[in-house]
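Private note to self, pasted from the team thread so I don't lose it. Backbone tokens:
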């Protein structure tokens, strides 16, 4: 292998160094509060892309027999722990295990109230889907109170709307008795979090339904290109700062219960973000990482599949299964995790 580069290769290596630096910064950002630099925190969204670009650089230098492949190769290998949060390949699930219960999380996008997708009778179709999958507990984000949505097999529920006049909020439906419930009111936002203490046979769990601050981004590259980039970066950065505050309110509430916790979230962020990292530090595991398969897509950003919805659970619980559903009745896809009693 050689180290000498021609003029064209020197230009390529300059770009290699730039994207290598971007990847290194993205690795560090999960440990840096967005309040420190809202602008820098946005780089974290590009971590998978930066990893892929550096992988391509490494392949190029190997094919040209240049030792410069070491830069990107070492950077990509050093981020191996992040790969497991993007793509996992677990053994066959234990979904047939006896004495289990399932928890589903689903951002239903107001049941297509404003006809975002070309689909009719969305509330009825989602009701039918949930009845067929039959989870013990369902957490909804972007929930809308509509007569067409019925879950007769779920006698216990907790619906929370941000204002008395609004029918938009967040909800938990359960087949099992709810003995306590509460809300975590995020200030100056339409987003919110609630919880319900549920008795499943002889066990009691605290289930959270959480909707962290929205980024207010239309998932279309053509639309984003027309936006004022400075305003877009400022808006996303401010949302990350709010998410940090909301995650702190959520973890503070963790201290109010001795029951094992299951957190169903629309994070509006990546699983390797600062907020996800902070939540997992509170004795939680990510059900997708433990029992999922593949990319774990929960949201389509144009051509790019993202995992911005998650089910975290207390480590004292045994996660036996995780499912991603390819159900296009919202801009999000439902997810479900199974736990052993």
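Design output:
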């Amino acid at each position: 292998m050689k180290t000498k580069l021609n003029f064209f290769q020197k230009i390529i290596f300059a770009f290699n160094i730039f994207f290598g630096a971007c990847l290194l910064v993205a690795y560090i950002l999960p440990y840096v509060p967005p309040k420190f630099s809202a602008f820098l925190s946005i780089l974290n969204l590009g971590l998978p892309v930066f990893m892929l670009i550096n992988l391509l650089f490494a392949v190029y230098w190997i094919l040209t027999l240049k030792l410069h492949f070491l830069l990107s190769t070492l950077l990509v290998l050093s981020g191996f722990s992040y790969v497991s949060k993007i793509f996992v390949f677990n053994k066959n699930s234990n979904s047939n295990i006896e004495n289990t219960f399932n928890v589903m999380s689903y951002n239903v996008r107001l049941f297509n109230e404003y006809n975002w997708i070309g689909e009719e009778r969305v509330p009825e179709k989602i009701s039918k889907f949930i009845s067929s999958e039959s989870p013990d507990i369902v957490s909804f984000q972007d929930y809308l109170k509509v007569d067409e949505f019925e879950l007769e097999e779920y006698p216990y529920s907790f619906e929370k709307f941000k204002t008395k006049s609004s029918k938009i909020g967040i909800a938990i439906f359960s087949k099992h008795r709810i003995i306590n419930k509460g809300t975590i009111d995020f200030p100056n936002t339409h987003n919110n979090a609630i919880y319900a203490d549920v008795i499943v046979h002889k066990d009691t769990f605290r289930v959270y339904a959480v909707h962290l601050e929205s980024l207010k981004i239309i998932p279309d590259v053509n639309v984003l290109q027309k936006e004022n980039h400075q305003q877009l970066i400022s808006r996303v950065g401010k949302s990350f700062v709010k998410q940090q505050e909301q995650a702190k309110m959520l973890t503070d509430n963790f201290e109010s219960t001795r029951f094992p916790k299951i957190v169903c979230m629309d994070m509006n962020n990546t699983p390797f973000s600062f907020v996800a990292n902070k939540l997992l530090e509170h004795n939680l595991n990510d059900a997708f990482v433990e029992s999922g398969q593949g990319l774990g897509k929960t949201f389509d950003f144009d051509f790019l599949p993202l995992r911005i919805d998650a089910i975290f659970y207390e480590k004292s619980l045994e996660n036996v299964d995780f499912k991603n559903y390819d159900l296009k009745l919202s801009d999000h896809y439902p997810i479900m995790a199974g736990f052993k009693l």
